[in-house]
Design a protein that fits this description.
about 500 residues; alpha/beta; 16 helices; globular; binds glutamine
């Protein structure tokens, strides 16, 4: 019996603590389920059975002594962007072929210190560039959800698609992701899971492959808001090894996930009402407003006037930082090396063969906007607009405690339907990128199904450092939505 795989993180850890199950049983069941799903879902890029079972055994020893951390014995999947010591870590790029870091990222260190058991590395868009998981060198992930009456393969979203699919398919009890423009919240919305990013700097980026450093936010995927709060609690905290890590105590996110929202002022930003937005997204958003009203919140109409500049700003700052971060992959130190006649040709061949198309596009855009003559016109201008977007948030949070918006402009789309069209792919992040630009906390919670039976999410955004309100409003929406749908198991 492996029915326990469908339990939440909070419930499985309670059972483990009560010794109703052993960590070894749970890890074995998770590994078996994850490995068996590979042909159908392709959510993982690496397993290390010995490591997983050794960690589970150590967990069992702690549990037997009545010891153990917050997530003791629970198998957790790790986006392939995070270094896990001795395990292949490639950011799903050919250029990092064979790289096994001799160190552990801070986020995963914290997870293991809290008793988490490493389950495997999850598939993702190459260097986290994408919204559909189709840029991975290891092939796309397939969403465990399918539209009613169709067996067309759908994207789980991206870039953290493997983590989202693994949680949605009950292969693990939580997973790590990174969110640079929406890569946790968008796949969470597409897979009926909860996805969170906290304030910039709450969770350390140390040991996570850098994409766009001023926008990158590590965070969890979970089955419930409470589980997400537990995981975010574990992942957060000051890291002296990371210069942008916040030297602050971490509030009690777990308690916040069951706190009352009575009297909270919820802002509804008018700029998120886009032309051509499907009626069902609009309806769900209104439903969310009604749920929060019924829970005792006050609803206020608010404005974030610079929202329309968010995507263009993001697509200057993001490639600029990415092009500079990715300069280190030159075939000299790690990963792929393709020999040329001389040093320059070796660089060219290695980078030409090692990077996929989307990565090359970002490097070209990034070096262009940073080049002499264009720096002021593009990069500097984008930094100024970024400041305006930040000021929008500062101002709006004078009149409300949290913002409520849809997470995505649609449900999961068919694989291949947007892959030749980068602009329409970039538009996926229209509701999520602003929170990265401003560095404020944001969460996506499953709130309903679209007409074809696919999950849709609502997003809660709060002021910097106020994750507690984000978790309490998220939990209030979760209670009201009572979303208990699951993808029918076909894999
Ligand atoms: N889809 C966005 C991009 O391609 C966001 C990716 C992310 O958050 N990692 O940049």
């Amino acid at each position: 019996m492996t029915d326990f795989l469908t339990l939440s993180l909070a419930d499985i850890t309670a059972k483990l603590k009560a010794r109703e199950l052993s960590a070894t049983d749970v890890a074995t069941a998770s590994l078996d389920a994850a490995e068996a799903s590979q042909g159908a879902l392709n959510a993982f890029t690496a397993f290390d059975r010995d490591k997983t079972l050794a960690m589970a055994k150590a967990s069992d020893e702690r549990l037997a002594k009545g010891e153990g951390g917050l997530i003791e014995g629970a198998p957790i999947a790790v986006k392939d962007l995070f270094a896990v010591e001795g395990v292949s870590t490639t950011a799903c790029s050919h250029i990092l072929d064979g790289f096994k870091p001799p160190y552990e990222s801070t986020v995963t260190t914290k997870l293991w210190e809290a008793g988490g058991v490493f389950l495997g590395k999850t598939n993702m868009d190459e260097f986290a560039m994408g919204s559909s998981n189709e840029t991975s060198y290891y092939g796309n992930v397939i969403n465990p959800w399918r539209a009613k009456g169709s067996d067309a393969k759908l994207t789980p979203g991206g870039s953290s698609g493997g983590s989202a699919a693994a949680v949605a398919a009950d292969l693990c009890f939580g997973a790590t992701g990174t969110d640079t423009g929406g890569s946790i919240r968008q796949p969470a919305a597409f897979t009926g899971t909860v996805g969170v990013k906290a304030t910039y700097g709450r969770a350390s980026r140390w040991g996570a492959v850098a994409f766009a450093s001023s926008l990158d936010h590590p965070g969890p995927f979970a089955k419930t808001v409470k589980d997400a709060a537990i995981l975010m609690q574990v992942m957060s905290g000051h890291d002296p090894k990371e210069s942008t890590s916040l030297p602050l105590d971490v509030p009690d996110f777990i308690a916040a996930a069951s706190a009352s929202v009575k009297g909270k002022r919820i802002g509804v930003p008018k700029e998120y009402r886009m032309d051509g937005m499907p009626a069902e997204i609009e309806t769900l958003w209104q439903q969310g407003v009604d749920w929060l009203k019924a829970a005792g919140c006050d609803i206020v109409d608010v404005s974030l006037p610079h929202t329309k500049y968010a995507l263009p700003t993001y697509y200057i700052i993001n490639p600029a930082e990415a092009s500079s971060n990715l300069a280190r992959y030159d075939g000299m130190r790690y990963g792929l090396r393709v020999e040329g006649q001389d040093l320059t040709e070796t660089y060219e061949k290695t980078r030409g063969e090692g990077f996929g198309h989307e990565v090359q596009r970002r490097i070209l855009m990034g070096t262009y906007v940073l080049s002499a003559g264009y720096y002021d016109a593009y990069y500097l201008k984008a930094l100024k607009v970024r400041r305006r977007i930040l000021e929008d948030f500062d101002k709006v949070f004078e009149s409300c405690d949290a913002l409520l918006t849809p997470s995505t402009p649609s449900g999961a789309f068919e694989l291949g339907s947007k892959s030749g069209d980068p602009i329409s792919m970039y538009l996926n992040d229209i509701f999520t990128v602003t929170a990265n630009i401003a560095g404020v906390p944001a969460l996506s919670v499953p709130a309903g199904l679209d007409a074809s039976g696919l999950p849709l999410g609502l997003q809660v955004i709060t002021p910097a450092l106020d994750e507690e309100t984000m978790f309490s409003v998220g939990a209030a929406l979760e209670d009201a939505a009572a979303f208990n749908h699951k993808p029918g198991k076909w894999w």
